[in-house]
């Protein structure tokens, strides 16, 4: 299950709407091994395409180095689908390379609403998981 704060969901949705009709993409980093998304990083879709996304390689290198320096990992890798449901495409599945990440898709195909779903993708196998949106993480 992905547990995520409402402000992070709002940030992903806002990014997806801002980049529409192109796909938006980015990550949410969190402490290594925590499974807790905390730091939102909107990234550039180097493809600038309504049907495909790719992180800019230079930007990705900088972001991954910053995560390494901060003992973080990509807890969420997100992107939007602008004309289809929030389900991973064959290309999304083929490019999924972070075995511990939650792959979040946001569909912006309907202008006044959005669909957000989360998946684990491991060795080409897609497993949808529940998403629990919370106001804040428990500190207990």
Describe the model:
By secondary structure, this protein is an alpha/beta fold. The protein has a single domain, classed as Cytidine Deaminase, domain 2 (3-Layer(aba) Sandwich). 24% of the residues lie in helices and 35% in strands. The chain has a 6-stranded mixed β-sheet. A two-stranded parallel sheet has the order 1-8. The longest helix has 14 residues. The model has no long low-confidence stretch (mean pLDDT 96).
Fold topology:
Blueprint lengths: L1 E4 H14 L5 E7 L7 E5 L13 H13 L2 E10 L8 H6 L6 E6 L7 E8 L2 E5 L1 E4 L6
Parallel strand pairs: 1-8, 4-5
Antiparallel strand pairs: 2-3, 2-4, 5-6, 6-7
CATH class: Alpha Beta
Query: Which descriptor suits the 3D outline?
Result: globular
CATH superfamily: Cytidine Deaminase, domain 2
Count of individual beta strands: 8
Overall pLDDT: 96
Q: Sketch the major β-sheet.
A: 6 strands, mixed
Order of secondary-structure elements? EHEEHEHEEEE
Beta-strand content bin: 35-45%
Give me the side-by-side strand order of the main sheet: 3-2-4-5-6-7
Indicate the radius of gyration in whole angstroms: 14 Å
By DSSP (H or I, 4+ residues per run), the number of helices equals: 3
- The N- and C-terminal alpha carbons lie at a distance of 19 Å
CATH topology-level name: Cytidine Deaminase, domain 2
The count of domains is 1
CATH architecture: 3-Layer(aba) Sandwich
Give the helix proportion (percent range): 10-25%
Low-confidence stretches: none
